[in-house]
Amino acid sequence: MNTRAQFKALIDRPDTDVPLAEAALCIAAETRPQVDVSLWMSTIEQIADRISPHLELAASPLERLHLLNEGLFIREGFVGNSEDYSNPENSFLDSVLESRKGIPITLSIIYMEVARRLGFNSFGIGFPGHFLVGVKLEQKTVVIDPFSQRILEQSDCEKLLFKMAGQKVPFNPLMLSSTPTKEILQRVLRNLKMIYVAKKEYESALSCSDRILLLADEDLSELRDRGLLYRELECAGPALKDLEQYISLSPPDPNIDALKKIVQELRDRVQAIH
Question: What's this model's pTM, rounded to 2 decimal places?
Fold first, then answer.
């Protein structure tokens, strides 16, 4: 089974049954076939095993959480890669496990996977512009930012939102809700796609778009984006198919006239070929 097929087999499961780390490693393995998914899954297990004995000293669930953070952030050394944030390696889980540096979402995936193996009820938080982790304790839910290696209070979340979105977006506690596994994987792929488009690496961006649509085949904006990527790669037939479907199904779009011109251009090219 090739890596794309393996990824699809994992994400075809119900959302709660999708193995997050394994699927994220498949994203890395498609780009770099040398990635050994099972090896890096074992690495996550080993990290949890090293931290586990230290948690036995805890007198409370909150103290266990502090000891988990100490293990991941101090002894294991996981930290945000603020110096080279846009490097695509930060989106590949194996690279982050090896270098101990990453972006919020990959660091959060590692945090969640280790925490779950140690008995914590952890979940991903798709906070605007900066992925976070929630951990449910007996009396409350604690929010952790693995990128900055700290626990966040609500006031910290409000400041983070202002930093990411400015005054135009008011804080809402629902922003700290749990994010489904398939949406987490989409966010990993969207981050990668954005990096590749900025670098004009359109084939790599197209690969990301294909996998986003495997996760969310109803996402019309992604269908449009894939059509535009096909156009950049001079694949007129597939570009025309995606963009015609987008125009026929999409809600009102302020750019619809520009898209219709592109569709006509693609029709002319396809007819010229035949």
Answer: 0.95
